[in-house]
Amino acid sequence: MPGEPYLDYPKNEIKKFLGEKPVTAVFIPYAAVTFSLDTYCEKVEERFAEVGHHIKGIHTFENPVKAIQEAEAIVVGGGNTWQLVRMLHDRKLMNPIRERVYNGAPYIGWSAGSNVACPTLRTTNDMPIIDPLGFDCINMVPFQINPHYLDANPEGHGGETREQRISEFLEINPKCYVAGLREGTMFKVEDGKIELIGERSCRIFKKGQEPYELKAGDDFSFLL
Predict the structure, then answer these.
(1) Could you tell me where this protein is found in the cell (predicted)?
(2) What digits encode the pLDDT tens for the residues 133-187?
(3) Same domain for 77 and 4?
(4) pTM of the model
């Protein structure tokens, strides 16, 4: 959340999701662009350690695919989604991540890390700074997430609203749902069930329907 220490608001949910037994997750910092992978790992490790868990950067492993195959948990940080997807494709990690998660490893992702859990990166907000070598992502959930969803444009901005951009996506992809996730909220998907966590509502988009709001405790099962 703006004005709070990095990853402070979700840290207790991370602890509950990973459990009481200490876990050392494989952390994928590839979305970092303007700072080093090691710096990113230090930042995330500090917060995870506060709740009794730890991370190890995937770039420190000699064999990244093997690291994913043996991971206790997988964590993917935010940053630039295009850069993240490019590096995941370069290192042939998309399928190994999906397979490891389907075989029981917890997956945690925020911002770009939530985008890549979707079928494609096409609802990211990020500048396309690099050729991602394809838009397909890990595809662990069958809907698209638009992270950091905003209801209105900043003052003085004359471009499209976020809602207009999502409407453009749905014109080309009419069968897909898009979930606009606001700051301070997250999805938890476990045992075939999905729930929204957080005080703010989520905005749901589907071609042919007026966008609508759902809050924590509402039924999101249609997304799966």
Answers:
(1) Cytoplasm
(2) 999 999 999 999 999 999 877 677 667 889 999 999 999 999 999 999 999 999 9
(3) yes
(4) 0.95
